[in-house]
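Hi everyone, sorry if this is the wrong subforum. Our group has a chain we'd like a structural model of before ordering constructs, and none of us has done structure prediction before. Sequence below.
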Amino acid sequence: MAEVRSQDDLLMLTDDKQLRKLAKLLRNQEEPLSFSINSEPDRAKFLEECNDAYDIVIILLQNSTDLRNKHEAARASNSKKADIATDIQDYVKYGINLGLQCIQNCGMRVTVVEKLKTHFDDLSTELNMADSRDMNDFESLAEEVSYHKNSMWEYTTNMRSKTSRAQSKAYSDVLKLQGIEFPSLVDRHKNMLGYKDEFEFLEEDQKLEVYNSIIEESGRAKMPAIYRRSKTRATSAGGIATMAVTAGMMAWDIFTSEHKLETVLTTGVSLLSGAVSYAVNVAVSSAVGSVVANTQLGILLVSSAGFVVGALVGILFAAATGAILAAILGTGGKVPQNLDNLKFYSATMPNGMALANEISHG
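Answer:
Right subforum, don't worry. Here is the predicted structure as tokens:
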């Protein structure tokens, strides 16, 4: 029997024109939101992030196409390089879909696509310099690119799709009933894998392994075994960082799926600001807790889990959302100490997944 997919499931766009159109639609719908930001520095930062997210996507699409075309033209002399270039382009397009469809926040989107571009630049340089006479390193590069491609497919198709998210609700419900908070969940899986250091001090590939362990246990997705480079090959500057932040976002989505934080947060924002406003004063606590709206004081108290959720779905953001979320994910759920004086805003940002479905049927 064929699997029945929800209308809320992600539809992977692979056509360059469609991806360019989606990136442009998002930028054009996000930019006008800046007019309601009452802080000029924050307004400028918001616009910068909107435009940077768009520009990097366009550059990635062009550069990955150029790389593929270059090696495809030389396929007769080296078919393996052409195959690797094609896999790199697929990896980039899956990552772009993740940024455009699964993240409704330009601040977090630009963080993800920046990491993706850094990694693409490293991989393309290595491919261009690869000597097919050194077959060990050549095959190792092919295996690594294939790993990233397959992993990104899993993250992107399972991050926000309704069918996929439903698979981990029972797991999330058990965590909720047991009162397990996210840092404790991370520590449990870190210890299961035999890592002794605190999560924040682990290497990026070790953090990725911990987050993937949560994803696997929840039933959300079947992740490929972690790829680790041989000692004969230098470590990529972008490397595993793209995967680690992406896996962290999915782990948070799994953890919060039965805490109803999206619904409660949307309701809280609506109570304070009529759903679309930048006048909300947001305080962030370390507890999982529920979102609490104080309409008299105009304050929204959210947990770190709520802030991550709110940022991913385009309800809450700050001038440095991407950096804040990267810090939270990089420490396994700890709230950065510099949030006290940071000004947060609320918004209803465009839904990239809905726009992608419209584009695919247009």
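For your construct planning: The CA atoms of residues 49 and 107 lie 6 Å apart. Residues 16-162 form one domain.
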